[in-house]
Batch of 3 targets.
Target 1
Amino acid sequence: EMLFDLFNKKSSEDFATDCKTKFPNVYALYHAADDGDALQTELIDLARKSFLEIIYKRCGLVTYSYYSRDKDEVLVKVMGGGDHDHNLLVFAEQFKYNLQLKADLDPRPEWADKPAAWVAFDDDKKDLFCHHTEEDGRQSPLRQKDRIKLTLDSIKEFIDIDFLAKKSGFAKEYYPLHDQQKLRDLREKWGRLGLWCSLYQPIEEIKNYFGEKVAMYFAWLGHYTTWLLVPALIGFAILIAKFFVPHDIYVLIGACFAGIMALWSSIFHEFWKRKESTFAVNWGTTNCEEVEPPRPDFQGERQENPVTERFERYYDPKKRSVKLIVSLLGAAVVVGLVILSVMILMNLKYNSDDPSAKFWAGILNSVQIKVFNVLYGIAAAKLNDWENHRTETEYEDNLVLKIFLFQFINSYISFFYIAFVNPINVADKCENDKAYIATGACKFMDQLEIQLATVFIINVAMNSVELGLPFFMTWLEKKKEEAALKDAKNVTRTFLFPSEEQSKLAGYEGTMGDYLEMAIQFGYVTMFCVGFPLVPTLAFLNNMLEIRIDAFKLCNLQQRPVPALAKDIGTWGGIIGVVATIAVISNIGLVLFTANLMEGSSIGTKLAVFIVLEHIVFILKAIIAEGIADEPEETSDLHARHEIIIKREYYGFSEENEAQLNQKLEKIEADYHVDDDDLKDCKPL
């Protein structure tokens, strides 16, 4: 409490200065201090003392505690940097945490400007590792994100902090505190909405501050947006040409554009794989797979894990399988409701004589897509929780699969209806009913164009909500606390400390929602570009803004995420590949059957041409995938060079040792060499 009194006597500015000098890297562990019940308060106080004692004695970390402004919470700061780097390095060695070697370990000058190798830290070889200069001039092999990760991992080694924060009621949340100076630099370079017209992103700085997983998402989003520029320009030119060329020529141009987009999607994806492999080598995450601990919400009986030799929770896989089947049936019911609602709206839109009904049906369909996505997202999360997945990876993979499959159907079914179902439903009218034809109801490509434009306009509007909602929620939280302060009797001060201010921000929810939004957009861009060539243009402009909105939220409206490793974009890479494959079938079908490129030809002839074109495009995509290596040659060479440097400098395995080993291997091979003559008398088993 002396610490509390001391902080209470200082201004917020003085305390901010103290944070910068005394607490270079801290965790705020934010929990209830007093709920009004004396016994509960005593128990929580005892638990808190035990908690702090474990952190100090077992983890070797220093804690600083103080009451919140209204004394209903206690904020505990855990220092994991500065003079305490030695303790963190002990855990780095224990956890086999990868750190970067010195660049000058490689004697060859041609590798001097290349990123150095990463290897598990060994305190006995500390001088081999790259040392970074801190703000106070000290040298350390740890960067700030390393300290954050090791601080949290060292605490989790002795305390199930996730259980305490989510289940026990002892703790409310935990999060890394922002480094205000580095955050200001990132805001200036990257996190301002005024930079929306620029594609520049300081990926290395993002990686060093927010971690590899966040940086990988923004690198992919930047790559995708950059590659959209050429289709955006072509699509814009095609739309202009629509007003100046005959319809048949326009349809032919659209068919060529469909072929271009089919090949573009493959080339874009292959070049991204090259880029992410380079990031993985440069960041030392090529082998970042690790044995994951159970999720905090994972329920099960305590049993000994034969791998870790620790008692962990176990859940019968058969029970989970039953739950997965129930979840699948539930999802099928929801998908059925979606299909039914879309059919009703589309029937109203294209078979009603009321113009206003047609207009509102289109609007309602766009809104319905968003509403169902939100509602099913909540339901999918509940089902995923109920399935009780053991690790975060299992949990996220199953959630991604549930949500994407649903959103794929929910987002695209109206477009497939317009493009392929409605032309069949009204085929007779479009051939024989001149009055019906005069209404424009047989112009299916125009209908598809209007529907796509409506969806994209609403998506841009939703971006405003995406930015405005966190603002509103933060403002509402502050207003609630200010109102509560008027009636509170234990108010200690009128201002908030920096860690308190960050506690009012929303927690970071991860990259899944962002990837999902872009994967759905990628489907619009690739699967229906023939129907509305301006889609890539709208997507490009949307993504220019999306980069800045996501960056602005991270730098201003959300708590700092815990750094996480990533060697690629995970499941989303496979999803992008599947969507690109479906896009080939969709666009060829649009050209041949909806746009009616081969007007007058029989359905059999069109099907034959469809199969031929589809095979040609798939063969070309396969050639592209095979011809473009997943890893650039220079990245492969750098990776191989890293292995050599690690072997020689880290493990002390010299060229002479290697030559001796090769000689021994050659001798062994010669001693045990078997000629064909030796096998002539052998009988087959």
Target 2
Amino acid sequence: HRRTDTSGQHTLCYEQQIYLIAGAFLSRHSLPKNDCLALSALRNLFPSTVMNARLVSVAWALNFARAFYLPGVAPREYESGEKVELKVNKLTSVRTQLPYDYYSHKFCKPHGGVQATAENLGEFLSGDRIENSPYLLFMRMDEYCKVLCQTKLNAHNILQFKRSIDEWYHHNWIVDNIPAASVIDTESFVTTSYSRGFPVGYYDRVSGKHFLYNHANIVIEYHEAVPGGNRIVGFYVEPFSVQHEFVGGVSWDGKDTTPALQTCSTAEPMDLNQAKDHALALTKSIEVLFTYDIVWKPSNIKWASRWDIYLSMDNAVPKKVHWFSIVNSLLIVFCLSGMIAIILTRNLRRDISQYNRLPTDEDPESEISTSEETGWKLVHQDVFRPPTTCPMFLCVFIGGGVQVLVMALLTIAFAAVGFISPANRGSLMFVMLVLFALMGTFAGYHCARLYKTFKGQHWQRATAATALLFPGGSFLVFVSLDLALASYKDSTGAVPITSMVALLALWLGISVPLVFLGAYLGFRKEPIEFPAKYSNIPRPIPMPPWYLSSAFTVTTGGILPFGACFVELFFILSSMWMDQYYYVFGFTFLVFAILLITCAEITIVFLYFQLCAEDYRWWWRTFLTSGSTAAYVFVYSSLYFTKLESNLPITYLLYFGYMLIICFGIFLFTGTTGFYAALWFNIVIFGSIKVD
């Protein structure tokens, strides 16, 4: 539970998963004031020596765990009247995908100067720039019609605000590490949005004017966990556009005491009726007075649940939609599994038993039938022949695919069990980068062992290509996009040089050495053993029917895997490009597993029919058959791009540049999945027949 120490500060003793171990004990007993882990209390409550020892161990674990709260995960409690800091983040737009620093526009700045908050690598790569603000908030102290500052907008500032309004730029404010939800009040309806922040202003099509939001009605919900200990559990901003006027029509130079305003009340918060007839139009060089209200509301929401409404976006997307995606994917898997079951139980079993049957005097026709066998059994001396087309590059692709696959599995698994918190901005991207670097050993190992199986001679080139191909190509695209972003003044999309150095250190200092370590271990292993040896002279391949040609199987091979994941893909793209939250990683893990199963099964089905046509060139084809899923993902993402409604060249570069990197990664791990499924299938079926 919790306790209050002598200094009056409150110490959390639950909220973390490790505390579930001792929850039953701690929920039934009150502990001493000065030390909730007092050993004497434990001995008095549990005289048993064994039980005492266990509880002491748990107690020390709890005490140790308190020192390792992640930033933004541990709750902070405020006393009444204590200052609460409001921070501002980048200005964002779903139309341009070009973030700008908050103070690149002429907003009010803090009196002590703008100070940046320490950020991690993932936040820098996401374009986050969190800074302080001049807004003064004090716990449970309502204030109305507070004047922030007065600033004069010239023609350049007016044009900048108009452009930002046209491009749907939004504020992103933060209080106690939770983002501001937007409440837009109109005469027709009230809209609450839990993503994207709140807009800079709006454009009225009737009057043809732009209006700037210069008044913020700040609503903060708090939960009083204990007397005097208040936790912030909700943060809303309702913006208004108000052309402020002082009582008596006096003017103000922004320096002396602020005169009383007649356009807002100090006794109640701003509402639509007060603001609708006094909107601030951006028509010429004007003086803008920025004001705000602060309203504190008690709430029954617990601190541990305060992110729920953000992640579900107030149940805007019902869970049954995700379940529909799962059921849709499972139907595809069941159909493919049925086809494979038919192949294995009927065709293969009959073929193998007939092929293994020895000719006898009683059955003289068996020898004739065996000699006249056609189909997959006739290519047993060629099916494991190494590919003649770029075998080294196939090994490099397999190594890169294994690295991406293991990284994706671990990242989704960690997120699904709650190790990646949405409160830690940039943590998902940071974890992905670190895991990708650490998985370099798997890439080197699989590339090296497969290349050794192919009897390759240039293992140094293969290892270097594995270490450089996917991360190197991604880094070149990233640097090119970063240089394009750097040409836009005040944009936070350009990554600082220190973050670029950190990326290079992860790649060249960790990933590359681990790839070479994995390659060393792979080359020390014996080559993959195949159940049949290949002959010196390749068997001629008959002309296959059109539906078994490489072009047809590769083109159609990615349809079913894409169909198994396209519903969930929509939500993932929305979280990436529409600034929406996505945190249903349990569904993601299921869909990802179904995707891998579908890739493996469709590859096995096509491989079986290919071998029945006496075509043994399966190495590259199986990789490309399942890897073609990435092509359908890229086409789908191109159609999704129309939702952004952008006409800026930089938006095209950013969107398709990053989607190209993502789709290449999908191509690698889906192709690798299909390849290893095909390799396993061949080893199983050809290991089941007798070969002289």
Target 3
Amino acid sequence: MALTLAQFSPSGELLLGTADGRLRTYDSGTGRLRAVLGENKESAASTSTSGLANGHLTERHTCLAWAQGTRKEKKKKGASPLAIVGTAAGDVKAYNTQLGELVWRASNCIEGGVTSLAYSSKDGLIYATGADCRICALDVQSGAVQSSFKASKHPISCIALSPDSERIFGGSSSLALWDSSSQERVSKFTGHPTPVRAIAFAPDGSHAASVGTGERSLALWPTTNAPPPTASPSATTTSSGKKAKRGGLRAAVSSLPCPDPLVTLDACSSGSSAGGSNPSDFHLAGVSEAGDAYVWHCASVPSTSGRQAGEGEASVEGHLVAHIRVDAVKGSQSSAQGEGQPSEAIMAVQLQPGTEGPVLLIARGTSAKPAFHSIPLSQQHIQQQRQRAGGDGSSAAEIVLQAATGGVLLDSTVVGKGANGTGASEHTKSSKAGKLQHSKQDVTVLGPENQGAPVVVMGQVAAGQKRRAEGTEDEAPVPLGERGAEQEEIEDEGGIEEEGVPLGERVAALEAQAEGRPSGGDGDGEPEDAPGPSGSSKADSVAVLLTQALRSNDRVLLERCLATSSSRVIHNTVARIVPRDAALFLRAAVDRLLSRPARAGQLAPWLRALLHHHTGYLMAAPGAQAPLAALYQAIDGRVALYQQLLRLYGRLGLITAHSKKAGAAGDGEAGAAGPEPEVVFEDASDDDDEPDAEDPFALE
């Protein structure tokens, strides 16, 4: 079961929780939402820098802590505490829980992520640690780094500060105790087989309890500054399975069994305001991974055998006092499956001193609607719970909290002390068919944090235009709000009926409207997706369709958007999409260009507009480098042949020109049947002046 990261304030009046990246504070007395920390300003800043639509999801919170306000706020009566938050990016943030604003932010103070926080009211410092094996001290007023020292050779998973703020106890699988002023290690302990998940100091600071990840036991360690004992070769095995070695390793003084692995721990003195108990006795409470709460009573006894504690150190004996869980709702999915898991889980617990003994404050439910309970842990009350459950005097008391069945807006439970004295919520049922009754006090009032963007319905306008098209002009169209019919007709230029029309038909109608052809696409004998002349399409509608196609990976819708040929619409559409969608569009366009180079004429205007409007983001985005390189190689491969083809074209043109010239010269002389003789002899004498020769054989 995924648990919500939550923690009570030192006074128990507020609960700080985060489950989806949002930080919320709730009033434990009324159960109502007090504030959403940094929702407006910080989310907008995170959105602008990361390019994501939801800025609250850009950071993952890893640990929480509470601190007192600044010096100016301390002087004010009833000043709200500060909420300290650590992130996986290594930042530490402080919020004003009354105004819900970010007070300061220490960026990258812990490299690799913050894993644990601790507050020192004595020095006004926030101690942060994490993956860089260092402990960093931050000023609670400004967030400035006051000091930093390397505390271990391995990443530290959890730390806790002693009640007097003089010692720091923590580590990973191996534990150590440091002096906060000198920043030197005082003692070293055997530790756990797995990294420590939670640590809690006893109220007097003599012992500290720790639990490892996945372990079903708690280990109690001596945290006094006494010299560590020297372990003998025959030292017994500690609760973690390790043997105390020579050289100053201190072993656990006690080990308490736990049915389930724990994720949080808290401690409180067992004494009451009236006195009458040992001041060194204390209670331990924790939340398990299954969403149940467990309470132990621990008492310090002098060590006589020395089996687990060192010489001069007091041992601790403890036993399980109570087990608190949330009952499964009848008819729910979990109860129907028979798995025995509750529909709700306990998020956080806190032990507080009471008049008759400690009181356990519990927060259960979800971060959207938590419920709070107060359970007394006096001996008389625990004995009553044991008798009611049918157990003996030595067994743990079983306390069952009734789960809410009214949902988030209407709560069917009454927060407070129930009739059985357990503090559990009691269902209020009516006498008719067992239905739940709700009063005016049960209604949750919606505040500004529940406000969303307004939704405009265009179905009424489309219906009015349809009636006018059918000839019923005498009937006035149904107005949308207080606007007139003429204004509605001007705003709805497309005239597309959207009520009850599938998305595919609306997209086809928008495409036909943009290309200036009929909406049907079948009347002129052309296919529906045939490219037509570019019309006066709207860039905002194409941008919406393009964004939807990219985020849903709809290839058909993307091809319809790419069919737009108007350069103005293309530039305006690309300018409207966010940078993250621009990177997705670049990859999709380049893939289509590489698979079908013949589409270069269609994709070139889109790619040109994309590089024109989003060059800065594409150059910095790591995921856009591969498509840009592929696009450059494809263009370079085509351009490389351009010079060679140009030279070949010139030579072919020269040869063609010479051939045409030679052919024209040969066709100019008509009647040239063969080659002419080189020498022609002509007689210069006149044949008419010479007399004809007489023929001697001629007859007279």
